[in-house]
Amino acid sequence: MSSEIITGLYVFLLAGFVGFEVIRRVSPLLHTPLMSLTNALDAIAVVGAIVIAGEHKSTLSTVLGSLAVAASISNVVGGFLITDRMLKMFKTTKTKKS
Amino acid sequence: MNPPLMSEQVIQVIYLVASVLFILSLKWMSSPATATRGVRAGEIGMALAIGGTLLYHGIVDYRFVAIALVVGTIIGIPLGLVHMTAVPQRTALSHAFGAFSVTLVGTAEFYLRTPNVSPFMMSVLSMEVILGSLTFTGSLMAAGKLQEVLPQRPITFKGQNIVNLSILAVAVAVAVVLVFHPERASLFPLIILMPLIFGVMMIVPIGGADMPTVISLLNSYAGLSAAAMGFALDSKLLIIAGALDGSSGFILSVIMSKAMNRSFTNVLFGAFGQVQASAAAQGEARTVKTATAEEAAGILGAANSVVIVPGYGLAVAQAQHKVRELFEALIKRGVNVKFGIHPVAGRMPGHMNVLLAEADIPYDRLLDMDAINPEFPETDVVLIIGANDVTNPAARTDQSSPIYGMPILDVDKARTIMVIKRGMSPGFAGIDNELYYMDKTLMLFGDARKFVGDIVRELGGAGGHG
Q1: Which residues of B are catalytic?
Q2: B219 and A35: CB-CB below 8 Å?
Q3: CA B428, B355, B222 angle in degrees (round to 5)?
Q4: Is B381 helix (H, G, I), strand (E, B) or coil?
């Protein structure tokens, strides 16, 4: 195994651990926005798709890459948009009166 | 340093910044006060990462990328504007899109590299494509069930698990062959096709009420497939984002499965949805006490403290706004009103909170199960709207009950209990609810929205708006 793979595994495990610790603390109140947010963040796969589509190495890879870019970016746009809309609805008794 | 190498390093630094922003983004989701900042951090991180990627010198043709970005944005906007009741199916659909994207990239990578694919590369590509394709069809099925274009009823047949696992086993076996013989490119479509079928088969036996667990689990799979893609592309940013999403989905599935009284292995192996409607206790016709809207309004108005327990039935009846009026009318009379929310009250984790927040109910009044349970003994009146099994005391007391052990809202400890219900039909698990026969329980039969509206009118409250 190359050192790149090992580094990748370290990153994966540490990020997974950070994820557990951070997400455990998210209030159940916000579990739905949490899911739509992680969904938008997960669409970071778009960076891989952009490279595949833009490198233009073969027709197949360009077509698949472009479709992947479109699918991912729709998650980015839709995910952030709906998370934002949901969070705007959460008001406290105080902010509601003001 | 030559320019391409320098820009490469700049991109890596940008990705590092984006990774930090993603983690902060999730950290800030811990409370509603900082959550908006969390979304901003995520947006900035995403914009930086996409911008940085566009700088990559290997990109020779921007035309298709540009078209795809525009088309994706056009698709994404309406998906961000759906109604709040439709958020669960939107979420399932976006899992499908994410998984679709990951599968396509994995497929493109394979055909660009074959026949020279290292065993490690082939392993991660297989994982990426298998997880991606099963999440794709699985999520589409889940979205279809939630949107009710597919039957919500679980469809089961004998030997289902064996058939399903065999389909998946074929995919894994083919992947193993490919790891050792990556030149056999004609086998590759099988590791897409088999998981696609598996994804459908996995969701077929699952009923509508189990969707919160399923969505969370698919969320986790989508994250893991993205992480596998990160390994394939050697992108730390993708590995991190995938790991975060994967652990988020995992945590939510554990919470949901606990709240539904399933062990986690039970969930992992797709056996959920097989809640046996064990011989629905067809008891003797027992008597219940009923009350009218007028009587209910009198009791609520005279109380010091009221806890409203909403279930999904409330959203089905579109009663959120009427409930808000009731909330305001009672607050105006000086009644302390809170909401007790069970983890599986909606169609996905946290869904009920969003529905109530949308109806303008302040979130500091929305309490989760652990926070509200100690308060029930001090509560004058509990008003249950559209919830059933999550209030059944049999979960605590009756070892023979199929829901025994399930964490419930201890509404039976309150002084008076009122239940708005269409009729005496049993809940999802097909079991009778002891609560309804208690001396201090009043049944309010009727449509939730109309009944709450009648109570509000009796209270002379909030005026006719909304």
Answers
A1: 389
A2: yes
A3: 75
A4: strand
CA distance A76 to chain B (A): 7
Chain B hits for A10, CB-CB cut-off 8 Å, are none
Contact A10/B at CB under 8 A: no
Which pLDDT tens digits describe chain B residue by residue (466 residues)?
456 666 788 999 999 999 999 999 999 999 999 999 999 999 999 999 999 999 888 888 889 999 999 999 999 999 999 999 999 999 999 999 999 999 999 999 999 988 888 999 999 999 999 999 999 999 999 999 998 888 877 777 777 788 888 999 999 999 999 999 988 999 999 999 999 999 999 888 887 777 888 899 999 999 999 999 999 998 999 999 999 999 999 999 988 888 887 776 665 555 444 444 444 444 456 788 899 999 999 999 999 999 999 988 888 888 999 999 999 999 999 999 999 999 988 888 999 999 999 999 999 999 999 999 999 999 999 999 988 888 989 888 888 877 888 899 999 999 999 999 887 766 666 677 889 999 999 999 989 999 999 999 998 854 444 3
Domain residue ranges of chain A, discontinuous segments joined by +: 29-97
Chain A contact for B216, CB < 8 A?
A: yes
| B90 to A78: CB separation less than 8 angstroms, yes or no | yes
pLDDT of residue B2: 59
Name the residue among A58, A64, A90 with its Cβ closest to that of B357.
Answer: A90
3-state secondary structure of B368: strand
Half-sphere exposure of B14 (CA within 13 A, CB side): 20
Residue for token digits 């590299």? B113
Rg of chain A's alpha carbons, rounded to an integer? 19
CA distance A98 to chain B (A): 13
Are the beta carbons of A42 and B226 separated by less than 8 Å?
A: yes
The owner of tokens 């940085």 is: B52
Residues 6+ apart with CB under 8 A from B370: none
Helix (H, G, I), strand (E, B) or coil at B258: helix
Crossing angle of helices B236-259/B211-233, nearest 10°? 160
Enclosing H/E stretch for B443: strand B441-445
Q: Which of B105, B327, B339, B348 to mutate to test the interface with A (most CBs of A within 10 A)?
A: B105
In chain A, the residue whose alpha carbon lies closest to the alpha carbon of B339 is: A29
- Write out the two tokens for A35: 């899911």
Contact B340, B367 (CB under 8 A): yes
Asked if A29 lies within 8 A of B38 by C-beta distance, the reply is no
Comparing CA positions, the residue from B251, B254, B247 lying closest to residue B22 is: B247
Distance from CA of B440 to the nearest CA of A (A): 30
Instruction: Specify the amino acid at residue B419.
Output: V
Q: Which residues of B touch A93 (CB under 8 A)?
A: 362, 364-365
Distance of CA B259 to the CA centre of its chain: 13
Torsion of CA B382, B385, B389, B392, to 10 degrees: 20
Q: What is the pTM of this model?
A: 0.89
Q: CA nearest B363: which of A36, A79, A87, A80?
A: A87
For residue A22, the chain B residue with the least C-alpha distance is: B27
One-letter amino acid at A36 equals S
| Distance (Å) of CA B321 to CA A35, A54, B172, B355 | 25, 49, 50, 10
